[in-house]
Amino acid sequence: AKGAGRGKTRFFEIEMDNRLRERRAISNELSSAIARNELCLHYQPLAKIDGEVIGFEALLRWQHPQRGMVSPATFIPVAEESGLIMQIGEWALREACREAASWSQPLQIAVNLSPIQFRHGDLAGLVHSLLLETGLAPTRLELEITEGVLVEDFDRGLSILRRLKALGVRIAMDDFGTGYSSLSYMQSFPFDKIKIDKSFISNVKSNPQSAAIVRAVIGLAHGLNLPVLAEGVETRPQLDFLAGEACDEVQGYLMGRPQPIAQYADLIGQDGAT
Ligand code: C2E
Ligand code: CA
Ligand code: CA
Ligand code: CA
User: Fold this and answer.
1) CA–CA gap between residue 114 and residue 120 (Å, rounded)
2) Nearest Cα residue to 99 out of 64, 140, 48
3) Where in this chain does the record put each EAL domain (predicted)?
4) Which of 9, 39, 190, 236 is 20 to 30 A distant from 149 in Cα terms?
5) Ligand 4 mean position to 175 CA, how many Å?
6) Nearest of 157, 59, 143 to residue 108 by alpha carbon
7) Which of 229, 231, 234, 254 to probe ligand 1 with, by most ligand atoms within 8 A of CB?
């Protein structure tokens, strides 16, 4: 038994070692991904509950020459750990603003921000200069943040959020319901939108608890006079449930998958730049 135990420990050590090496390899390759043009953005429609598309969320994609398409769920955490998220986040923000500024329809463009981008540098200054550089109207830009921004350094996070808001951009609270203390943050900053995490939406027809949570979050948001968007809507019954609960906006495979913007040429007007 003792030998087996030791064998097991050894096995885990090797596994850990492999995972560490894998992360290091990804981190190295990621550092040249921008220069090599391996990053791109896919765009997923954001729609009113009646189906009218009001904008897109920009989602990072990494087309790796050997590994193929690497998921942001894999490389964003690596980029956050190494600090590369500063460069990658700036690239995504510039690219999304530039793209949206070229549309003939003045649709919203939502961009994800990492809490690390609030910790270092001058995020509000960067957003300001990117708006000037690309000519995008500030009111069209929506920045999606998670509560991590306020958990890590509340005062700093709050002050940057206020400066962003003063630029005229909108701030959405992403992944609502997955953290620990979202509720207290709702009263410290005037968010423009709440996005309910897709983990609740996927169970809404099978799990009464999930349905109750979604109902409660919509009630909370509306009590605060905030529009609420449900993420991860995949089926018609989920959409019908959300419509019955007066959810304002939806996003998910049912309305459209994240795709290169060319796939949505009809929605943005024909003269998109890329
Ligand atoms: P997120 O911000 O919560 O984005 C929504 C995720 O849900 C996306 O995953 C999207 O493809 C996926 N999704 C959308 N509709 C459905 C659906 O109906 N069903 C299911 N099962 N999934 C759906 P994706 O593109 O893999 O991105 C994962 C996460 O990576 C994002 O989660 C976000 O946290 C992060 N991410 C992506 N792009 C960026 C970026 O530019 N900057 C930062 N900091 N994070 C990013
Ligand atoms: Ca998001
Ligand atoms: Ca989300
Ligand atoms: Ca998420």
Assistant:
1) 11
2) 140
3) 23-272
4) 39
5) 5
6) 143
7) 231
Tell me which long-range contacts 267-274 makes (C-beta under 8 A, separation of at least 24). Answer: 267/45, 267/53, 267/105, 267/107, 268/103, 268/104, 268/105, 268/107, 269/103, 269/104, 269/105, 270/104, 271/102, 271/103, 271/104, 272/99, 272/102, 272/103, 273/98, 273/99, 273/102, 274/99, 274/102
Tell me the H-state helices in the chain.
Answer: 2-30, 72-82, 85-101, 116-119, 123-134, 148-152, 154-167, 182-186, 198-202, 208-223, 236-244, 265-268
- Token pair of 171 as six digits: 């701030």
Most ligand 1 atoms within 8 A of CB, residue of 59, 81, 95, 197 to mutate = 59
Query: Token pair 């795709």 is at which residue?
Result: 259
Closest CA to 193 of 156, 157, 231: 231
Using a 10 angstrom Cβ sphere, with 0-12 exposed, 13-18 middle and 19 or more buried, the burial of residue 12 is exposed
pLDDT, tens digit, for every residue of 20-79? 888 888 888 998 998 899 999 999 999 999 999 999 999 999 999 888 999 999 999 999
Which atom of ligand 1 is found nearest the CA of 85?
A: 44
Three-state DSSP class for residue 42: strand
Tens-digit pLDDT profile for residues 132-168 = 999 999 999 999 999 999 988 999 999 999 999 999 9
**Alpha-carbon gap, residue 177 to 184, rounded angstroms:** 12
